[in-house]
Structure formats: C-alpha cells, structure tokens
Amino acid sequence: MYPFDEALRIADQLELDLVEISPNAEPPVCKIVDYQKFLYQQKKKEKEQKAKSSKVILKEIRFGPQTDDHDYNFKLKHAIEFLKEGCKVKAYVFFKGRSILFKEQGEVLLLRFASELEDYAKVDQLPQLEGKRMIIMFSPKKPAK
Fold first, then answer.
1. Is 105 a member of any domain?
2. Which domain holds residue 34?
3. 29: domain CATH number?
4. Which stretches within the chain are classed as H helix?
5. FRET label pair with 89: which of 33, 51, 107, 140, CA 20 to 30 Å apart?
6. How many CA atoms lie within 13 Å of 11's alpha carbon, on the beta-carbon side?
C-alpha cells in the first residue's frame, strides 16, 4: 500500500500509467500498467465472453384452429428436432376471419402440443390470445448428465 503521490511517482519512474482498478474498494485499488495495453486486454476479454455466450434461436410453428392430425404430427416432429438442437419454440394458432369463434379448439390444440412435448421442453408461457394469434412458448430441457 502506497500513498497516491508515491504511487504516481513510481509509475512515472517506470514510464507507465497508474490505472484505478476498483474505485469503490477501501482503499481504492490501482495498478501500474501501460494503459493502451490494458484497454486492449479488456476489449479482448469482452470479445471472448461475447463469443462464449450462447445465442438463443427462436423457431415458430403455425397452426390453424382445425389442423389435421397428419399436419399436426408433422409439425410436432419439427418442434422436437428444434428443441433437440437447443432452440426455443413458439407455437401459435392463427385465427382468420370468423375462425376466431374456435378459440377453445385452438387452446385445446396448443395444450395437446404442450403435453406431447413435455419430455423435450418446458412451457415458458401458457396459451395466451394476442390479437388473432394464440401463442405458447417452449424452451428446451437440459439433457440429464
């Protein structure tokens, strides 16, 4: 531990910069380094962290209120593939014109979809009507180790 004036003098002797690392600590922590090199290393660390962070991909699956069994199964297979890849899935029933009268059918369809996907995904959001769409969200379950 050095007083500020002495630390500044030491930094001048070494032809380096006195950089404050954590100002909130008691006493504040400083380091004697080349400031440009310090900034470069910070940018490099931020870049590495950004590369390591995973990006969330959202896939959408669209149904009609009277979706046939074959189409339903086809879309179910796609949803399972998406979830195995680690993508989030947004399934929705789109109501056109007067088909908004079949809200219950749409909700039943989405709940059936959720029950068949329960081995692969957890439900983030239960079926919810937004305008002419009834939406449900899934995120993949982490594989057991």
1. yes
2. 4-50
3. 3.10.20.80
4. 4-13, 35-52, 69-85, 103-116
5. 51
6. 18
* 145 in any annotated domain: no
Do the Cβ atoms of 55 and 100 come closer than 8 Å? no
List the pLDDT tens digit at each of the 145 positions of the chain: 888 888 889 988 998 888 888 888 888 888 888 889 989 999 999 998 888 777 778 899 999 888 889 999 999 999 999 988 888 999 999 988 887 877 888 888 899 999 998 888 888 888 888 888 899 999 988 764 4
- Asked whether the bond before 27 is cis by omega within 30 degrees of 0, the reply is yes
Structural domains of the chain, count: 2
Of residues 33, 37, 26, the one with CA closest to residue 7: 33
44 & 73 share domain: no
The answer, as to whether pTM is greater than 0.85, is: no
Residue by residue, DSSP assigns 104-116 as HHHHHHHHHHHHH
